[in-house]
Amino acid sequence: MVTDTAGKAQECIVSLDGQYIFNNYSYDFGRLLKIDAAHYRILWSKQPKVREVLNIETNRITKKLTTEEDSTPAPLLSIVMPTM
Fold this sequence. Notes:
By secondary structure, the chain is mainly β. 5% of the residues lie in helices and 39% in strands. A hairpin with a 4-residue loop joins strand 3 (12-15) and strand 4.
């Protein structure tokens, strides 16, 4: 079972050796491209413009690769200038 971007559990067949994922609910086939030891980019055949990332440690699909650096919010900055 893999958790999709909407938080729903999806039954998928994942082959890291064959570099593919098959979603049993949507009957969609995707190629897996290795990003690092835990993340794979998914290139879906039915939705070629959708780029998602599979985390094999958490069995979760996300819209983009997230790291600890990405998850920290950027500081807010306000610039105030007088105008006439």
